[in-house]
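ugh ok fine here u go
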Amino acid sequence: MDSLNRDLFWKLAEPEHLKARAFCRKLMGSREDGDDLYQDALVRALGRFDSLRDPDAFRSWLYRIIISTFQNTLRRPWRRRRAPLTEEVREQLAGDDPSPVHAARRTLARAFRAVSADDRALVTLFELEGWSVAELAALKGRSEAAVKMRMSRVRRKMRAALAEAHVEAAAPAKTKAETSEGNICVAAKPGLD
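structure:
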């Protein structure tokens, strides 16, 4: 790549930098993993910059590369899942109770596990990054109606996963006698001795 193209790439990337990096952090669930994703995506984008035909489409083009890089990251078999120790958590270790923050993150993680990486990226762009349906349609190369239908299906899957988790959490734990094979547990009614 010649220096003119490289300069143009960085000129186009600079206004997107903070939002794209924040998007990567949200996708990955931690600052460190998000920054790694963003760096990997920038390297891929820089290497493919010659394939961008219209500089006005840079934003959508860059986000497609970020989403593709994110999907590839999730496919890596060696990628360990771990709870991130973010700056927010470090601050709360000083004495505040971080339980609500962790509960909210666990809830969001459960909902995201119910959908594909591509759908997760779509929801994050719309709900957390403030992209419009028109922008998402341009990103995906689909009609606005198709994007709205897809978002509706994704939300339904996420709600179902959360409802299932709520039912599981509310279900009473079976006693040892109820779960042992061959044992029948019958509760005696008072006065029937």
